[in-house]
């Protein structure tokens, strides 16, 4: 099975949705562990993309 292409915007929106649902109490305690794990995965992907983009920009500017 092919891995889906990473989209920062899509991942960020999903992460924000999870955070909003947790803050609003819309996630049951039964779902909480899975949602927190998914949020962590998304956060790591987004941070990695931001670091890579920053390095590319630095190369261009230098």
Outline the structure in words:
This protein is 79% helix and 0% strand. It is mainly α. α1 runs antiparallel to α2. The longest helix is centred in the C-terminal third of the chain and has 33 residues.
User: Tell me about the biggest sheet?
Assistant: none
Q: Number of DSSP strands?
A: 0
Write down the overall geometry: elongated
**Mean pLDDT, all residues:** 92
Radius of gyration: 15 Å
Element pattern in H and E = HH
Overall tally of domains: 1
Low-confidence stretches: none
Count of helical regions? 2
- State the distance separating the first and last CA atoms: 40 Å
Specify the helix fraction band: over 70%
Find the structural class using helix and strand composition.
mainly alpha
Percent of residues in beta strands: under 5%
Concise overview:
The protein has 62 residues and is an all-alpha fold. The protein has two helices and no strands.
Detail the topology: elements first, then pairings:
Layout: H1 8-23, H2 29-61
Helix pairs in contact: 1-2
Notable characteristics:
62 residues; mainly alpha; 2 helices
């Amino acid at each position: 099975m092919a891995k889906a292409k990473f989209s920062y915007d899509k991942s960020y929106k999903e992460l924000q949705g999870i955070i909003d649902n947790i803050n609003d109490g819309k996630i049951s305690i039964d779902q909480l562990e899975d949602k927190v794990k998914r949020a962590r995965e998304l956060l790591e992907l987004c941070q990695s993309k931001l670091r890579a983009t920053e390095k590319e920009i630095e190369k261009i500017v230098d």
